[in-house]
Amino acid sequence: MFALRMVQLIESHAGALSDELMHRLKASGSCPDLLQKVPSQEIMMRTHEIYRNLSDWILSKTQSEIEERYVGLGVRRARQGVPFSQFLFALNTTKECLWTYLEREGLLEFPVELLGDLDLLHSIGRFFDHAAYSGSLGYETVMREEDAHLALASVAVRAKA
Q1: Which terminal Cβ of the chain has fewer Cβ within 10 Å, N or C?
Q2: Domain range for 87
C-alpha cells in the first residue's frame, strides 16, 4: 500500500519534478553541452515520461524494453554531441530529484513501512542503473560507427595515394 502511494505521488507530480530537474541541471554548471545542444522541451519531455510512467518502467517494462529505449537515447545524445559524462550526470540528477521529492514529502521517514516496500526502492534504483548502462551502449554504438567510418576513409585515402 505504501509503495503504491509513493508511485502515485511521483506520477502525479511529474511536471513539478521535471521543472525541478531542469532547474538543477541549469544551476549545476555540470552539463553545458547537454543544455546547449538538446532543446529544453526535449529534456522536459523525456524526464516527464520517466516520472509520469514510473510504475510502467519499474513494473511492466522488460529489461529489453528499457535497453531499447535508452540505447536509442544514448545514440541520440552522442549524435547531438553531448559528452557521456553529461548524459550520465543528467540521468543521475533525475534519480536524485526523485529521492529528494520522496524525502521532502516525508515518504522516507517511516522505517517500518519503508522496510516493507524496500523492493520498490530497489526497483527504481535498478531501472536508473539499467537506463545508464543502456545509454552507454548507445554511445558505444556511435563510437564504433565513427571508428569504422574513419577506418574506411583512411583506406580510401591510402588507395588514392
Answers
A1: C
A2: 2-160
